[in-house]
Design a protein that fits this description.
Layout (H helix, E strand, L loop, with lengths): L1 H8 L2 H4 L1 H14 L8 H7 L4 H19 L10 H28 L11 H24 L2 H18 L6 H4 L14 E3 L5 H19 L4 H22 L7 E3 L5 E5 L2 E5 L4 H20 L7 E4 L8 E2 L6 H9 L24 H11 L4 H8 L3 H8 L3 H15 L6
Parallel strand pairs: 4-5, 5-6
Antiparallel strand pairs: 1-2, 3-4
Length: 407
């Protein structure tokens, strides 16, 4: 009976999980300064606590496994049985943490379309359980005072510090996607959830195999091999992915027309689009009147060379219009500055270009220069030229700023 009641009344994992989960919610909320009304964003940010839950539960499980050795002589439960109960409890506690965080985030913003991404939450649960299993395995063979801190340090390093290293695939197989995903104009790459799930599943299988047959060398070889193969497979899945496992969002947008132009945004921003369409139309007309080529259809966050776009993240309609006005400068400095140690000769015109865009679309000259950090005398000299010359200067300056060549 003693060992049957042990999990509920003596397990460190059970007894310390409430404060651990509370801290987990606080960790997630502290990393959610801005949340888009987008279920993928809310769901992924709800799992940021993996950074804390995974090493925390791993250390607690290591301590419990070390304690369990003292009960094994007369225990009715096997190692597999105790391990399974702890993993089930950790899974429930982790999911509860994610759901509480999701509810707290929904109090800030609730998406108007779609549903929570249960697959994202499930991945967070799976990797937390897998890293808990690693800690339990350490506690099976090492003293608690050694196993618990070792488990915490190893898992903390794996989950929290891999984002700072290369190759990029390493960070993308840990399951820590909460800080990498996703504003409303992005989505996860197809294998972003599968790759870390494969590693987590292999680790769970490997630990269960060693717990069931701890004295068989072939089992140890199998366990190491299956985890190594899973890491290699996941690395292949993520080999062509950048620092974050995301890509531009695809799918249909909702559109409204104003002043002969069509403005399109993601469904989550439909209300904001209707509020802002008139301001966007005025901004687009002003840019055209200044001699710039503004297309008849404009899309939210459609970033590419020579493409005008706008953002609806801010609650201020005037600011949203300014995101359209300045959108061609959003992708600057160009990527080549990574290879030139930040040297960007044409960048001397960056502030002046932004100030000119604001000035020709109605912002007072003094304010345009101050907001952009440009020289007020330089801006006034530019505005004294005829409008065609001003537009030609801007186009030439923009073209030059997209390279790192000397001017």
């Amino acid at each position: 009976m003693r060992d049957r009641l042990w999990l509920a009344f003596s397990s460190t994992t059970v007894l310390l999980s409430p404060p651990l989960c509370i801290v987990g919610v606080l960790v997630s909320m502290s990393n959610a300064d801005f949340v888009d009304p987008y279920w993928l964003d809310l769901s992924s940010k709800s799992t940021v606590s993996v950074l804390f839950l995974a090493p925390g539960f791993s250390a607690l499980a290591a301590w419990d496994a070390a304690k369990w050795r003292n009960l094994m002589i007369n225990a009715a439960r096997s190692w597999i049985s105790v391990f399974s109960l702890i993993i089930l409890y950790v899974a429930a506690a982790t999911m509860a943490t994610f759901l509480l965080t999701l509810l707290a985030l929904m109090a800030q913003v609730t998406p108007s379309v779609g549903f929570p991404r249960l697959d994202v939450l499930a991945l967070g649960v799976a990797v937390t359980c897998a890293y808990t299993a690693f800690g339990f395995l350490l506690g099976r063979f090492l003293p608690g005072l050694v196993a618990a801190p070792l488990a915490f340090v190893v898992i903390w390093g794996w989950v929290a510090y891999t984002p700072a290293v290369q190759p990029f695939w390493l960070r993308n197989i840990t399951g820590n996607i909460g800080s990498s995903c996703c504003s409303v104009d992005f989505q996860l790459v197809p294998l972003a959830l599968l790759a870390p799930a494969v590693v987590a599943a292999s680790l769970l299988v490997a630990v269960m195999a060693v717990l069931a047959w701890p004295m068989r060398p072939l089992v140890w070889a199998f366990s190491v091999g299956i985890v190594g193969a899973a890491v290699a497979l996941s690395a292949t899945m993520m080999s062509d992915i950048g620092a974050d496992p995301v890509q531009g969002r695809t799918g249909s947008q909702q559109c409204v027309e104003n002043a002969g132009r069509k403005f399109c945004a993601w469904p989550e921003h439909a209300a904001e689009l209707r509020q802002t369409a008139k301001n966007l139309g005025n901004a687009a007309d002003a840019l055209s009147s200044a001699g710039l080529d503004v297309p008849s259809t404009l899309r939210e966050n459609a970033k590419s060379k020579d493409r005008w776009s706008f953002s609806l993240n801010s609650g201020n309609v005037d600011f949203r219009a300014k995101t359209l006005i300045l959108s061609q400068l959003d992708e600057l400095p160009p990527p080549c500055t990574d290879q030139t140690q930040g040297v960007w000769p044409a960048g001397v015109n960056f502030e002046l270009a932004g100030a000119w865009l604001l000035a020709v679309t109605g912002t007072p000259v003094t304010e345009a220069a101050e907001v952009s950090g440009a020289s007020l005398p330089d801006l006034r000299r530019l505005l004294e030229e005829d409008l065609e010359s001003q537009a030609q200067w801007y186009e030439s300056a923009l073209s030059a700023m997209r390279s790192c060549d000397p001017v």
